[in-house]
Amino acid sequence: MIEDRLSFFAALYKVHENSDLGMWLLYLTIVALCIIVFKLGFAKKLPILKSIIIYVFLFMGCTMLTFLGVFLPIAEGLVVAAVILIIYKIRLHQEKKQQRASAE
């Protein structure tokens, strides 16, 4: 059956039963996770116009990722990437805090 082949988030949002709402929820999940991963791992301070252009392309790319994310673990991979980057940022912050404390 098709339900057995769906990714976790696609099954969670019941894409096979209510495709309109399910696909929109999957799209919004993938967009949110892409923004989190981008901000944590790759974002630099940019002028506003360049940031807008980057986010427009991010939204367009997430459209394709949403179609792939129905059967492939796209959103799940983004969750793992976000967790890894969050752990990295926390450890980096703690290390900088220790360096400042030892320098004083």
UniProtKB/TrEMBL annotation:
Does Transmembrane show up as a keyword for this record?
Answer: yes
The domain of life for this entry's organism is Bacteria
Q: Do the record's keywords include Transmembrane?
A: yes
- State one Pfam family annotation: YlaH
Which InterPro entries does the record associate with it? YlaH
Q: Where are the transmembrane segments?
A: 21-40, 52-68
- Kindly state which keywords UniProt assigns to this record, in alphabetical order: Membrane, Transmembrane, Transmembrane helix
Question: Under which name does UniProt file this protein?
Answer: YlaH-like family protein
